[in-house]
Amino acid sequence: MIVEVSNILKRFDDLVALDNLSIKVQEGEIYGLLGPNGSGKTTLINCILSLLKYEQGEVLLFGEEMSPKRYDLKGNIGYVPQEIAVFEELNVYDNIDFFCGLYISDKKKRKKYVEEAIEFVGLNDFKKFYPKKLSGGLKRRLNLACGISHKPKLLILDEPTVAVDPQSRNSILEGIKRLNKEGATIIYTTHYMEEVEQICTKITIIDKGKNLITGNKYELKKAVGLVDTLILKDIECSDEDIENISNELHESVVKRIGNELHISIKDSMLVSKVLSYIEHNNIYFGGMTVKSPTLNDVFLEITGKELRDY
Ligand SMILES: Nc1ncnc2c1ncn2[C@@H]1O[C@H](COP(=O)(O)OP(=O)(O)O)[C@@H](O)[C@H]1O
Ligand SMILES: [Mg+2]
């Protein structure tokens, strides 16, 4: 186990920011912490890194108990904070070199690592630029380069794509996938469910400091009873046909909405049953699509609120 957080309780005065929260991150995962603003994601990261004290609970990193003085453990971690943390008085190259130098003392090796990080985030043309000359997206990429240059085994990224242009966002997401393929375990916090769907192999949905549910995206949707909906457009069928299809599909819900037929598909094998009924009864339809539930739907099922409302 790379990270094991057990029953963390963290208060800020009267506010319970982490409420008996536990997570386990295994080697090779891209672990997403998905939750609205204020749900406790950054607080959790700060507790994992021993940057904050907590009232109760335990954090194990690489199987060992984490504490503020465990520099040996910290050397295996890359941390990209939510607030951009780079030195305004250092240029791009020197910023990355500084952070890399905290862990890599061999000069030759460090030069290689810094160059690789620059290449990785696509800042080759900006090596001599000072941060204030960089756009928001490029600054984010610099922040990322500072966190990854020492090639950590565990990389923790706190909302690395907030307020960046789509091009930088894609470059960051693709970069994270590549680092993961090269062996890094990733913890990724965000309030953007699309990003979690795109890159995370495991997800914890967090709200009000609680772990609401954990699993891969399919498990989360299944756990709250959400299934794909097959939509047949411009269909010409009778109410009797709808009843027959319902009967064939047992528990699936079949609904006519306007001139569409919406069929919830609990098991993908049922699709062929629907299509074969339609073929045998010469039913005309104009086209079809499949609508899959989103993580917003999962969040809505559990909390009664929309994730995107925040
Ligand atoms: N230093 C602090 N002092 C008091 N309250 C805090 C502090 N840091 C965070 N909080 C509160 O803790 C809760 C969780 O915050 P945070 O972990 O930053 O959430 P997230 O990262 O998910 O947006 C919020 O209600 C926030 O206002
Ligand atoms: Mg945060």
Automatic annotation (TrEMBL):
Taxonomic placement? Bacteria, Bacillati, Bacillota, Clostridia, Peptostreptococcales
Q: Which organism does this record belong to?
A: Peptostreptococcus canis
Q: What is this protein called?
A: ABC transporter ATP-binding protein
Which part of the chain is the ABC transporter domain? 3-233
A Pfam family found in this protein is ABC_tran
Keywords carried by this UniProt record: ATP-binding, Nucleotide-binding
Source organism's superkingdom? Bacteria
Molecular function (GO) terms listed?
ATP binding
